[in-house]
Design goal:
Helix content is 40%, strand content 20%. It is an alpha+beta fold and 163 residues long. Strands 3-2-1-4-5-6 form a 6-stranded antiparallel β-sheet.
Length: 163
C-alpha cells in the first residue's frame, strides 16, 4: 500500500495550534476585565468639587476665558485620575443652560476644552445630541457622554447609566 504524500497532523501539532488560538482569548478576558473596572470607576458618585466645577459653566456667561476653561477641564481630569486617557472615553458633558432664551443646553468637550452654549434646535456635535433631551429636562445636573453610553449625574453626585 502506498504511503500518503501529506501526513495527518499529530497531537503535538494540534496542541501548538491550540496554544496560538488560546492567546487571544486571554487578551480578550483582560480587556473585558479592564472595561468592567472602568465601568465601576465611572459609576462612582461624583465629588462636590467636580459638581461645582461643572456648575461654573453657566456662571461664566456666554464666554469664558482660557483660565476658567482650563480649571473646569482640570477638575474633570482630577475626578478620574485612574483613567489614563479620558479623552479617548469621555466625549463631553451636556447640561441644561440657565443663561435664558434662546439657549437650551451647554457642552464642554474634553479634547478641545471647548465650552459652547446651544440654542433650541441647534445640533450638538460628536454624538452629544443623544444626551440633549435628558439634560434639557433638568432632572439631572448634567449628562456625561461617553463613546458607548451616557451617564446622568444627579444633584447629590449619584450616577445613572443611560444606554
Amino acid at each position: 500500500m502506498p504511503r500518503p504524500l501529506f501526513s495527518q497532523p499529530t497531537k503535538q501539532q494540534t496542541n501548538v495550534l491550540n496554544l496560538h488560538t488560546a492567546a487571544p482569548a486571554k487578551t480578550e478576558m483582560k480587556n473585558e476585565e479592564q472595561q468592567m473596572q472602568m465601568a465601576r470607576l465611572l459609576k462612582k458618585q461624583r465629588s462636590k468639587e467636580y459638581m461645582e466645577a461643572i456648575h461654573k459653566l453657566d456662571a461664566g456667561g456666554h464666554t469664558m476665558n482660557a483660565a476658567e476653561r482650563e480649571a473646569i477641564v482640570a477638575a474633570i481630569r482630577a475626578e478620574f485620575p485612574e483613567v489614563l486617557d479620558l479623552a479617548g472615553v469621555l466625549i463631553g458633558i451636556v447640561a441644561k443652560c440657565y443663561l435664558g432664551d434662546p439657549y437650551e443646553v451647554h457642552t464642554i468637550t474634553i479634547i478641545g476644552n471647548i465650552i459652547e452654549h446651544y440654542k433650541r434646535g441647534q445640533a450638538l456635535p460628536d454624538g452629544m445630541e443623544r444626551a440633549r433631551s435628558l439634560a434639557a429636562r433638568g432632572g439631572y445636573e448634567f449628562v456625561e457622554v461617553y463613546t458607548d453610553v451616557c451617564r446622568a449625574v444627579s444633584s447629590d453626585g449619584s450616577v445613572s447609566v443611560v444606554q
